[in-house]
Amino acid sequence: MREDIREGMHETMTIAPRLKSSDNMTLAAPTILLVEDDGALRTLTARALRQNGFNVLTAATGAEMWVSLRTSVVHLIILDIMLPGASGFDLFRRLRRESNIPIIFISARGSEEDRVLGLELGADDYVAKPFSTRELAARVSAVLRRGGFEGAAEGIADGHVPEVLCFDGWQVSLTRRELRAPSGAIVDLTGAEFDLLSTFLSHPQRVLGRERLMELSRSRIGDSSDRSIDVLVSRLRRKLQASGSEPPIVTVRGVGYMFRVEVSRA
């Protein structure tokens, strides 16, 4: 291993942040960092992503990933779980301590336990191998849109006011995909969490079963199970629960979930 790569594992890094709306005007294409140790699959996937209009950087190990993040602006990471040395899960945990760059897991480990763990950690998506490169490119585009790369600046020049929904002092901008707490602080949500919240806001005070939630949600977890939906609901509920207050999402035993509070438009 080269010395500069070895050093990259220990140095304090400056990692590119998640895109802001103003970045849309200056970036022609997002840069994707593909971290995959299988050389043939890495080459094939990188080529397919480039053909779909993305700039692509590649890395075979976590150490090489850190070097790329130190030297390049990266807008999304595709991260294999089974890597030599530190696993993708371990790398994800460190990444989340230092950055909120969108991350998509890819793995031959497609079990429910692994998908649930990826959701619990806060990944933006999880794609099991073998996968279609067209599907992966579509999922990358969806995650980037949720993060604001495309369309976030639309409506500003013509004076359009983004649609905002309110409940219990909270505000949700559907256009900006932004959740603001009663204190005014912005609460960070993954793409799947925001899609789930939007579904609840569209059906307030109605009981929704798990299958119905999977059907209505736009989140990119088409192979969801009841348990993975439960994990997403639990994470979203924790983020919505202000100190001393009741969470707005309640469990209806044996049926599903209900968003119990009234929702209004600002």
Automatic annotation (TrEMBL):
OmpR/PhoB-type domain mapped to chain residues: 162-261
GO BP, one annotated term: regulation of DNA-templated transcription
One protein family per Pfam: Trans_reg_C
Location(s) in or outside the cell: Cytoplasm
CDD domains named in the record: REC_OmpR, trans_reg_C
DNA-binding region: 162-261
Gene Ontology MF term list: phosphorelay response regulator activity; transcription cis-regulatory region binding
Record's keyword terms, sorted: Cytoplasm, DNA-binding, Phosphoprotein, Transcription, Transcription regulation, Two-component regulatory system
Superkingdom assignment: Bacteria
Modified residues (4-aspartylphosphate): 80
SUPFAM superfamilies: C-terminal effector domain of the bipartite response regulators, CheY-like
Gene3D superfamilies, sorted: 3.40.50.2300, 6.10.250.690, Winged helix-like DNA-binding domain superfamily/Winged helix DNA-binding domain (1.10.10.10)
UniProt cross-references to SMART domains, sorted A to Z: REC (SM00448), Trans_reg_C (SM00862)
Domain Response regulatory, first and last residues per copy: 31-144
UniProt-recorded name of the protein: Regulatory protein VirG
Annotated organism of origin: Novosphingobium endophyticum
Source organism phylogeny: Bacteria, Pseudomonadati, Pseudomonadota, Alphaproteobacteria, Sphingomonadales
